[in-house]
Design brief:
- The chain is of the alpha+beta class.
- The protein folds into two domains: about 160 residues, Aminopeptidase (3-Layer(aba) Sandwich), CATH 3.40.630; about 150 residues, Aminopeptidase.
- It has twelve helices and 13 strands.
- The protein has a seven-stranded mixed beta sheet with strand order 1-2-3-4-5-13-6, with helices on both faces. A six-stranded mixed beta sheet has the order 7-12-11-10-9-8.
- The two termini are about 20 Å apart.
Length: about 350
Amino acid sequence: MELSFDHDPSALEALSGEWNALLDRSATPVPFLRHEAISVWWSTLGGGEWPDGRLWLGTARDADGALAAIWPLFLPEGPTAGDRLHLIGSFEISDYLDLIAPAERSAEACEALLQAIEPQAEVHGVELYNLPEASPTLALMEAVAPARGWRVSRERLSPCPVVSLDGGWEAYLTRLDPKQRHELRRKLRRADQFPEKVELRIVSPADDIQAQMESFLALMAYGADKARFLRPAMRRQFLALTREVFRCGCLHLAFLDVGGVPAAAYWSFDYRDRLWVYNSGLNPAYASLSPGWVLLGQLIQWAIEHGRREIDFLRGDESYKFRLGGVERSIYRLTLTR
């Protein structure tokens, strides 16, 4: 396998017709690696996380012209410039990242990346952030890189709790700690008995996504940390990502309305038979109802009823993720230097 690099951003757009088809066959088919998500991230450099960068889009093709592997990379420039390539999406707002290639081609693709970098005088390393623990890239790079004279280090970054939905709602409840099972049932029952109507509302393709996102962002902004996070560049990034995910049918935006007023909301990717819970907002005026818990309980019920296999809570060790049955998986940073 021979890898070549493109630095012209038009090369990213030119792959739009092939990218997601390859991702569907890849070892790490996650929503953050879809062409739409990568393109939006690159257009804003992660909502301003990086001041500047140069595209290093690595691709390999088979003899028949079929796309065999993608290394979506960039080299930071400006005040935070270095000499290490990063995966597009690194690292704050894309929870899972990786090489895009089928598992059986991953070894070739890892070797091809290092071989393609070695003649490049301006690159002295690679930072692979947010690799899922199941990614073959971790072990393959740890085997391939030292054989070529590269140094490799692995660092665990964060847990990513995942809830299995096997067996239906009652089976899910039995897997919870008895105390948490009782607490969830109590909160859902109290919502059913609340004086004002409490209902789950999921944004549909017929809805005005801009208006729905304004409601969601207003809920996010109640939290001081999230209000700071929503600086103008990040807001543009989030809105652009939402439009693209909505357009491709992968958005699951759910509100908990109380008396017709949004009290809580969760923004998730609905992708490959699971919900990937990405962000949330809560109105503190409804705290006595525990709207976040109620909404998550209803989301889990919805996911089970609609044939989803898992709820992925993505990065973070917040206690509620484990109290709701999350089983820990991890993401890693792999650093390669020469």
